[in-house]
Amino acid sequence: MSDRSRIAVDAMGGDEGLAVMLAGVARARRDFDDISFLLVGDEEAIRAGLANHPNLSQHSEIVHAPDVIAGDEKPSQAIRRARTTSMGIAIDCVKQGRAAAAVSAGNTGALMSMAKLSLRTMPGIDRPALAALLPTLGDNDVVVLDLGANTECDARNLVQFAVMGAAYARTTLDLSAPRVALLNIGSEDQKGTGEIRDAAQQLRDATHLPMRFAGFVEGDRLSRGEHDVIVCDGFSGNIALKTAEGTARFVADLLKRAFRSSVRSKLGFLISRPATELLRDHLDPNNHNGAVFLGLNGLVVKSHGSANERGVATAIGNAAKMVKADLTRRIIEDLGNFEAKAAA
Asked: Does the UniProt entry include the keyword Aminoacyl-tRNA synthetase (predicted)?
């Protein structure tokens, strides 16, 4: 297979260990049978693990990496060991053209730093952004960015994030003209900082791009399904993400406690079990796993460290969709069209 259909996987990253990573890769291979893999990590351990996945062995190549980045390792320390670690070598495979994307469930800060240093930002992009899909009450998930790569952003950064997020939504959610909104403290035009209002005006004028600017959105509307892309600085985005995840866990734990409180509650649980199972499945982060660093000269996807087999497969599936759609090229084209119109 060509390098354009190959994904490099940091097999040693993640909290659940090599066995779960390989099971997730095998599951992704069943869903995307035209994708092959570079499995990066301890060669002996990977080879032994592949004995449980004979079909995966036929479509994978092992790339030995003697070291692993620890979950609590500082990015500055991790960068110095990039050439010998499974994470660093997986990213380098993208840089060298051996793979079209890299996927890791390892240390987020280290992955971000290594990816930025190795791949660099694409022409016309000032800063890369971390984007992820969050569940909604609508027909599809919502793309939210930035989720922590940039704590402070000016209007130009926010506009670039919007262009990249819209291209990502067209690719992953199969939308022709995604609805884009800026996260703000109110929906009125006069609300928010000068940077946010300036970015909003630029996006209103960008009617030639394949997206629809829908104005401002407040935090309590993130999951309503009214927008396809929500743009913010990394500080606000990371807080919004952690709040949403915490709220999902709170609701799940509250339901468990309520259903265990009495015999009548237990009976009620049995009756409502189909609905609670649907809720749990909808909120399960493994079904929405795989954040991507947009704006780099190559695709790097971050999987949850605690992802199970299904979560790992979801992250790899997102990477496969972006590879097939040539997301990097789409972003460059959209940004070029925006800059050309702005200059005119």
From this structure: no
